[in-house]
User: Fold these one by one.
Assistant:
Number 1:
Amino acid sequence: MTNAWTDIKNTDLVVVMGGNAAEAHPCGFKWVTEAKAHRGARLIVVDPRYTRTASVSDYYAPIRPGTDIAFLMGVIRWCMDNDKVQWEYVRNFTNASLLVREDFGWSDGLFTGYDEEKRDFDKSSWDYQIGDDGFALTDPTLQDPRCVWQLLRQHVDVYTPEFVENVTGTPRDKFLTICEMIGECSAPDKVMTSMYALGWTQHSKGAQNIRGMAMLQLILGNIGMRGGGMNALRGHSNIQGLTDIGLMSNLIPGYLNIPTEKEVDWQTYLSTREFRPIRPGQTSYWQNYSKFMVSFMKAMWGDAATAENNWAYEYLPKLDVPAYDILRMFELMDQGRVNLYFCQGFNPMLSIPNREKITRSLSKLKMLVVMDPLSTETSHFWQNHGVHNDVDPSAIQTEVLELPTTCFAEDEGALVNSGRWLQWHWPGATPPGEAKHDTWIMAQIFLRVRELYQREGGAFPDPILNLTWNYADPEEPLPEELAKEMNGRALGDVTDPTSGAVVAQAGQQLSGFGQLRDDGSTMAGCWIYAGSWTEDGNMMARRDNSDPGDAGLFLNWAFAWPANRRILYNRASADLQGKPWDPDRLLIAWNGEKWEGYDVPDIAPTAKPTEVGPFIMNQEGVSRLFTRGMMRDGPFPTHMEPFETPMANVLNPRMRGNPVGRVFESDVANLATSDEFPFVATSYRLTEHFHYWTKHNPVNAALQPEFFVEISEELAAERGIARGSRVRVWGKRGEVWAKAVVTKRIKPMVCGGKPVHVVGIPLHWGFMGAAKKGWGPNSLTPFVGDANTDTPEFKAFLVNIEPAAEEPVA
Amino acid sequence: MNIDLSRRGFLRLAGAGVAATSLGAMGFGEAEAAEAAHVRAFKLATTTETRNTCPYCSVACGIIMYSKGDVKTGETAELLHIEGDADHPTNRGTLCPKGAALKDFVHAPTRLTQPRIRKPGASEWEEISWNDALDRIARAIKDDRDENFIATNEAGTPVNRWTTAGFLAASATTNETAWLTYKTVRSMGIVGFDNQARV
């Protein structure tokens, strides 16, 4: 989230698209209710189903799964056509005026540079025109045909209301009503917020769905505003933290990158991360990359990381592919190229697509280690559960170790909520039986491996032998020690580069990332968390819930990264002179000498408003309507069909799915067509359950005991399916049996002149736990992923459905 | 709106206060004593309160856990009750149907309590000690890493990656667990590293 849950009360219009917050985030959703009750805010829901969020909305429209880009580009076109643009914001705070290279273009659904063989774009033309001074050329009048604004105008031209209706199935009148409601928020004192979740990410073009809305929010001037922003409703309680700390193939904590093998040495690695400003006078804060990176290397390897050995650059693994993400790892496993696999609180048997392939892959491992508080499907993948897991244990040679861990009630530490708040929690219960903290387990594994290397030597032991491990009790590092390590501390005296004054003495905890240095005098495991545990103590444990000005910020409650800032880009809440666009929504304002207000300014405190742009992380100093070559599938979002679709892409019928989406050769033959599988399926959550966890809780298992699928009355009639009867749902990769919930909440849509039926598949059942045994959507979903994030396409795929014989009554 | 008085203290006061204020004020001194003697102490008054956050979605509602026994003093603590934390700015004491049933998640019948091993081809689990389990894991890591570690690529560039092992990290563990996991996994050169954010 750019903003916070509590900030939603400040909005005028909530758009829930790609999510179902009332059901999946109930206590956060009540801030929508608050805004509706106390500000007269309105709520729009666009979703294939009439969800529980829709049931309290002011306006609802259906949409065919996987067509959000067409809808959003249609809204942008409508806003441009009808002068619903926050012009001063667009001119000054976006890259609308920057000129793009002459050789950039778009036709037949593809941007310039597509190579069908490689399934990749040559992105060199997707860039600005750079002048002799090294800065991008601009046309502040926005009239130059090569400026971003004119190119965007041209790009969205195809997305007429008729086009939108034809592709998305959203009736034209409903689409236009929504355009009008959204358009009102282009006024500087009207603000819209976007609340989205996996309904937007789990597509082969998920990142572009989100780009589409971010662009709309910029055009309306809603980024950086109270009650505005792009609000990703993260799924799990610490998915934000795990991402921040970079537990992904290609990440280093704080959104730094693991090198590729083309970055043969430290100098090459840094040379592509200089982040020089491409407009005069801009901050381009990533220029400090080397300070964050050196401080990370010092946190990892301490005295073994020196200027002489390039901070132990050699210790880092180097990637030969963009990422060894989950899909790639299971593909390699299936090819017999993975031997050991660890699942720490993760249940891939239900969360990774094409379960048949997952079972087959796990069966090829030598050893699987599962650390979990619960007995999961993954740790039991080898066990026969009849139709629910029809395997032959004797044919599976994988050794499985199941290790009991503690859960939240028994451990201590911080979780990061969707609004980037790091909140500390304390243990209040004794772990059951022999369950252990994950920190203890990881320490035990590490220390035992290190001891084997000390004793026996072996393959490149240096990064293991020299890993910093100076905890009071090496066997069980304390949460406090680990949190302090992430925050960072001074290794030598840290001085102010201009005054020479000492800002942090050797050994002291740092108070912020501004104190980080690239000369080895500081260490920090995760630079964006600097300030979370300072010399003043644990900032994440703060519990002062006062809220000056009723701004919804709560600055003294816990700690928010970065720098305790509650609303990202808050500089953009004020105009070019530094005066708030809306006086009732003050966040920060320029007082002639510095920025001050309710929030921590997202700009240098004395940066003059007319000189320094508000988007300080960007080289341009402004936000991007056009993203240059930063996304693999285009600098603007363009309509792409899901890999499995009832309708060919009207922009280019030859194009299947995302032309650069993640798909492996071995899975292409496993993709369905609509001749055989005519119905569109989508997965979703229910409010009574949390993923695959709460089916272990007898209370939740009683609330929603049994796997079902949801279909319209029209589809039920067409297939002869009675309300509450048993059905078989099958796709190209598997089959499931479920109760049929026949509902008015789903209605057939008309796309390309033909009716499209949607089958809703909730995701909470498996073969372990207290609930009745069932299946998850992953028995049916395709093994394909997003072009940028590799996130699997769970939200749009094809199935068939028919009545099935009832189960025998036991 | 900070409540300085702990909720447990408040309840204790409130329990005693019913008799003291309503009867004592009317001059029923003896009746007050008799009343106080038979009023049962509020059950939660004898418990230990701990502040925590809900482990489910990313709203991260504040919760208060009530336990018999205090883990901070080394006692065995049994979790008795969980409720929403009224001081928390986001949820202000409310919980959803999942959060409201959290206590029964902690006590789920399928919570794991003992390390187990399933041997190749076996159809049943066997119990294993922590020590043996961890030794098996460490040995498997060492042997596979030594056998399959890629020190340099074809061009002779040091790449130091180990691709025959992978690690899927959790989504509800603490930042501190995440950091220790990061250190351990990266020091070994594992690149098949991912977390629930991917899906």
Number 2:
Amino acid sequence: MSAQDRSAFRQSVPLWAGLTFASFGMVMGLALSDAINATTTLILMIVPAALFFQTMRAASRKGPCSGRGEAQRLYIKRVAIFSSLYLVVIALQVSLLDGEDRSLAVRAGLSVLPGLAICGVFWAIGRLILDEKDEFLRMLIVRQTLIATGFALGFATIWGFLETGEVVPHIPAYWFAVAFFGGQFIGAISNRLTHGTWGSL
Amino acid sequence: MGLAVKNRLKVLRAMRDWSQQELADRLEVSRQSVNAIETGRYDPSLPLAFKIADVFEMPIEDIFERD
């Protein structure tokens, strides 16, 4: 393998992202099946967290080629931090609350942490809009985020009424955050179709 | 309905033998911005339009006009 190939391998975002999700799935699978205890889960969560950092570093290294500025680099760093925190606290929540009788304060504390970590990602998107100096890229981010927000709110509203009509089963409300991130993908496609670029989110 | 604006960015850039990236660096914007303005997918703000005029050392009305 040449030095160029090794460099391309190290900078492959899909590869690192795939390894991150695979390792996270494995650890969560082991934790949920009681194959490992809470402490072991926490220790093993270092693996997907480290892989996630590598994913973000690879994405950041691609920067100069795709014209990413300082605002995008800061955004990637912030998302990496909050996503890593999310991975850790979700593992903590799953392993400590799984079948255990904890006090209300402990349950509330453990349950609010993953939500706060995701709120950190929302904050990072807001900071990116403020930090981005390139007006065209800023417009694309705002456009993409508005589409994502509309998609998530639409999904929440329609699903809520379908639930009332007993057409669909009840789902936890955090799925609307997942819908928001799915909406970001739709927003990126919309940006590509209308403005010729995917944007920078 | 919004006012349609066309520009001579691509021609002026070609006359100076600048790449999109070179022009983007001079304007301190991304290459995507230059491409979007050139292809008419994005109309720049007034401050950016003045900056473009400064870079080309031309009056703004010689670069941008009503479609």
